[in-house]
Amino acid sequence: MRLPLSRGPITTRLFEQLARPPHDFDPSPVRATGAPLHDGDLQLALFVCYELHYQGIDGVDERWEWNPSLLAMRRILERRFEDGLAQVVPRPSAVPPAAVRPALTELAIAADKGPSLSKFLQREADLEQFREFVVHRSIYHLKEADPHTWAIPRLHGRPKAALVEIQADEYGGGRLQRMHSELFRATMRRLELDDSYGAYLDRVPAITLAISNVMSLFGLHRRWRGALLGHLAALEMTSSLPNMRYSRGLRRLGGDAEATRFYDEHVQADAVHEQIAVHDMCGGFAIAHPGLTGDVLYGADCALTLERLFAEHLIGCWRGETSSLARTDLVAGRS
Question: Which pLDDT value is given to residue 312?
Fold first, then answer.
């Protein structure tokens, strides 16, 4: 992945630093003034900071990963992001461990009442709209499972074993061709899209970046490990039916078995993962850490809320007969 185009003063300043060898700099002047979840400058800056902990960025010295000045800048951005999440997702109190499962179920049921992106893609989307959807999803799916894997060394016992079981499936049981990220690459290729890592980073809006960033936020901070588990559980609980609709929609548009395999795989796998995530992973974590059950529910609600905002963005654009992707000239701050 190369450094993307800047989207404002934060990314401009950040990218200027990253283009140089690691050095100390003053992070304090960083300011983000827009609504955090829809601020492309803020979300892109966070995404790039986080990416240094994943596959890195071409031309950026790897020693930046743990540079104190950069971490200080990232923390300023994270506080703003956390404030934005708190504005749309109420922070729940801890509940008894036995109440975690029904509470997660209630959140998933409530989320199903929102705008259905999967139904739109199944029944109404044209091929270009489906391709746009895949472009958005490529930001996460090309590194699918990686953010949640950060939790493995932070757990023990039953929750750890449950998470490892889920993640092993995400990584194809050790077989490259079955890794979910590789299955998604096949979908992209069948849709004549660039399947290289981060190829469309300049085209996606803030809300798409926020979906990925919240996983990294939770995954890279031990204090958020309960939220990370709740986030994963919410994804698994709300995955099977939408993925069945995505598959049907893509077949309606002429997609073949290779194009739909990614979605078909999730219909089966996530039905199993849901039970493991809710009962063994989150249930076991709640028993071991009853004071953190509120974090589990918070992480789940964050996942579902951001997905709702994402669906509203895509459907709103498509109903208005406009693209859901950003124009590169506007991303670069040019008129």
Answer: 97
Of 68, 88, 108, which one is at a domain's C-terminal end?
Answer: 88
The pLDDT of residue 333 is 45
Query: Shortest CA distance to 299 belongs to which of 135, 150, 116?
Result: 150
pLDDT score recorded for residue 329 = 53
3-state secondary structure 251-283: HHCCCCHHHHHHHHHHHHHHHHHHHHHHHHHHH
Number of domains in the chain: 2
> What is the pLDDT at residue 33?
74
Integer Cα distance of 63 and 52 in angstroms: 9
Q: Is residue 2 part of a domain?
A: no
**Ranges of the chain with pLDDT below 70:** 32, 328-335
The answer to whether 301 touches 111, Cβ cutoff 8 Å, is: no
Query: Do 247 and 267 touch, CB atoms closer than 8 A?
Result: yes
In the chain, % helix, strand, coil (3-state, to 5) comes to 70, 0, 30
Q: What's the pLDDT at 328?
A: 63
Which of 61, 88, 115 marks a domain boundary? Answer: 88
> How far lies 72's CA from each of 23, 24, 54, 166, 198, in Å?
13, 10, 19, 33, 25
Please give the structure tokens belonging to residue 160. Answer: 């750890």
Sign of CA dihedral 8, 13, 16, 18: negative
Inside any domain, residue 1? no
Residue range of the domain that includes 17: 9-88
The pLDDT assigned to 268 comes to: 81
- H or E element: which one contains 157? helix 157-170
Does residue 172 share a domain with residue 242? Answer: yes
- pLDDT value at residue 271: 84
Task: Give the model's pLDDT for residue 270.
Answer: 78
Instruction: Tell me which residue of 135, 133, 134, 160 sits closest to 149, measured CA to CA.
Output: 160
Same domain (yes/no): 81, 172: no
Q: pTM above the 0.90 mark?
A: yes
